[in-house]
Design brief:
Layout lengths: L9 H9 L4 E5 L5 E2 L14 E5 L3 E10 L4 H4 L9 E8 L4 E7 L14 E9 L6 E8 L1
Parallel strand pairs: 6-8
Antiparallel strand pairs: 1-2, 1-3, 4-5, 4-7, 5-6, 7-8
Bound molecules: zinc ion.
């Protein structure tokens, strides 16, 4: 069973990621999905929300190879010589989210195709207290 009583916060979203669940917030008034979740519906401003588990499946709708990485990615070993691909994924549920894209070659962006089917992957880093789970998508 999924605990759906959590607040609509980034911390709760990250906790779901650590449980390998990609959860969106859904407005119970107008049905709008938000990913990452928001405490207020961006469409009708209702605060009546519920958690919804997404399929984690979608397609690549845009991407870029990142050579100058933000600090938390540098800490994972990415740099000018070892780039990674960041992409926008449109989930089957219709929401878009940006995340790292796995299973593609960052040094050959010309071979990466918009529309490629992807599915959610959960990257675990660190140990003990420092353990974190990041969302990524794997090209299939
Ligand atoms: Zn709404």
């Amino acid at each position: 069973m999924i605990d759906t009583t959590r607040p609509f916060t980034v911390a709760a979203f990250n906790q779901y990621l650590s449980e390998k669940k990609l959860m969106a917030s859904r407005c119970t008034r107008c049905g709008e999905l938000s990913l990452p979740p928001r405490a207020i519906c961006p469409k009708c401003y209702s605060g009546a929300l519920e958690w919804m588990e997404t399929s984690g499946k979608g397609k690549l709708s845009g991407f870029t190879s990142i050579y100058i990485a933000p600090t938390f990615m540098v800490e994972q070993g990415f740099n000018r010589e070892n780039p990674y691909v960041s992409g926008i994924v449109e989930l089957d549920e219709g929401v878009k989210i940006s995340a790292r894209i796995l299973g593609v070659d960052p040094k050959k962006p010309e071979e990466i195709k918009v529309g490629t089917p992807v599915s959610a992957a959960f990257i675990e880093t660190g140990e003990g207290e420092a353990r974190k789970t990041y969302l990524a998508f794997e090209a299939s």
